[in-house]
Amino acid sequence: MSAKVVDAADVAAPFVAELKQKIAALKGPVPVLVGFLANDDKAARKYAEWTAKTCAATGVRFELRECQRTELEDKIIEANEDDNVHGIMVYYPVFNGSQDQYIQNTVSYKKDVEGLCHKYVYNMYHNIRFLDEAQTQKCIIPCTPLAILKILEYVGVYNPILPYGRRLHGRVITVINRSEHVGRPLAALLANDGAKVYSVDENGTMEFHRGEGLKFEKHVEVESATTLTEALPQSDVVITGVPARSYRVPTSQLKEGVIAINFSGSKNFEEEELKQKASIFVPSVGKVTVAMLERNLMRLHEYLEKDKEARSSNSGKETSA
Amino acid sequence: MSAKVVDAADVAAPFVAELKQKIAALKGPVPVLVGFLANDDKAARKYAEWTAKTCAATGVRFELRECQRTELEDKIIEANEDDNVHGIMVYYPVFNGSQDQYIQNTVSYKKDVEGLCHKYVYNMYHNIRFLDEAQTQKCIIPCTPLAILKILEYVGVYNPILPYGRRLHGRVITVINRSEHVGRPLAALLANDGAKVYSVDENGTMEFHRGEGLKFEKHVEVESATTLTEALPQSDVVITGVPARSYRVPTSQLKEGVIAINFSGSKNFEEEELKQKASIFVPSVGKVTVAMLERNLMRLHEYLEKDKEARSSNSGKETSA
């Protein structure tokens, strides 16, 4: 018995089809996504090419703007202020960790298709789902964590017989990577849906589980003495994103029939070995990530176009007054 | 001839005296500063002790709240919402880089005495000096960079004969450290005041100089091929903050009569050698940093108390209506 290998393109297909239909049906301007490439990173360029391809397929107008990293901040601010741009994304890494996090926060939340600015990250960690009290504008969820949730739905880890928000109840999931960008938000989202999550990185393990609070029912994050070696055999799902060519998850420690997902640019699993042990293997997630990016874009496009309409009808009133 | 060694306490003294006087003269509530200690870091505890000591000397009510790092975010939010707290600071490091940067942004800008939240950092980089259009509320500048500017004023690097905002014109300054926390903001602030700055870290050199823009006249940051070895002999001032015990600035490469400032917790200079070459040496800046912290606190205290008054007079109106 060999694992079922799931192609991210198959998971993305219905989302891509839906996007295509929605965009074709639009009466107003087509969504415009601007991507900034300010590095020489090969993986970043590949991701940009993917974005362009998926956008072309769905009808989004994608514009890749290449610039020097020292020009990036000004170019982002220009795009923030441009009414014709609906979404902005940046192909990281650009500078170092902390300066890149600064850059993430210079993207206006109104155009942040990646969901990486503090407002969205904060709301996600606090399980705040809407931007406004009237609950008309949903928050943006970071693309890669969101893509992984969609993959978990596709491969049947979410149990639809359970009530919404509890559908991972009973699942143990290990996430190897605790970046603010993917691993930690992913752990929080999984915990918010009921899973017990071991979040592991080189600094140790944190455990995430569902909170009991009445207000937000947000996840709880606690220190854990559980090592990766102890976490792996307990885990129904192992999701890994270690950005190191040499890193491999030890197959022998995995549970028989595990569901294995790799979101790193490198191969984090011994793939041939893994296929003999896992039930399902998803070697990459990028195509779903791009679909989620476009899904986020559609949302921001809707809000921005409504906003523009409201502004132009207001200014119309002033003129006629 | 041996360098004049400047004690940070002497630089801080007039600020501390001014704070004392201002606080004694207050009619309303005394400023309350809450410090969060959520690690076992010795340097962090020492810094907390210093804060307590300076606060006791000036009349600020300082409250050290120790907690688990997993509790920190909730405790910060509690303090954000507490009308009796005027300032919040966190003794870093708590988690890793990116999660700490997330934590920095959970502190409300209304209470961010350290000036580390995105709003202040963004405004600082863009040379935006006020929070409001009416220019009644000044922005908060991060404490350590601000402390270093005050030290540079004290030791005569700022030339008061030049117009305000140009007083570092002609100075070449090397800053070894380009963290978002100290080194990069410091480089930008120095450039905004007219200096030519080499900002050096393990990833290379960036050059900062004054911008020519009409709107904000903000600094310009460009890539530089200048190595540290080339930058040091040109530099009138060398400011270093390398957090590594083994790191030493090579004395032989320094300009005769250099002004040397160390803001690292470790000794970054060969001190005995340096004293034979430098004109002025400032071995540490911490005491000025704490004074600046309290100065920022006084500002936030003023805004918050005005805000409270406005709210209470408004609610009074509603009652009498």
TrEMBL record, chains A, B:
Residue ranges annotated for the Tetrahydrofolate dehydrogenase/cyclohydrolase catalytic domain, each copy included: 7-114
Picking any one GO biological process from the record gives: purine nucleobase biosynthetic process
Organism domain of life: Eukaryota
A GO CC annotation recorded here is:
cytosol
Pfam families xrefs: THF_DHG_CYH, THF_DHG_CYH_C
Does the record bear Isomerase in its keywords?
A: no
Q: One GO molecular-function annotation for this sequence?
A: methylenetetrahydrofolate dehydrogenase (NAD+) activity
User: What are the alphabetically sorted keywords of the record?
Assistant: One-carbon metabolism
Describe the location of the Tetrahydrofolate dehydrogenase/cyclohydrolase NAD(P)-binding domain by residue ranges: 142-203
InterPro entries, alphabetized: Aminoacid_DH-like_N_sf, NAD(P)-bd_dom_sf, THF_DH/CycHdrlase, THF_DH/CycHdrlase_cat_dom, THF_DH/CycHdrlase_NAD-bd_dom
Q: Indicate yes or no for the key word Cytoplasm.
A: no
Q: What is this protein called?
A: Methylenetetrahydrofolate dehydrogenase
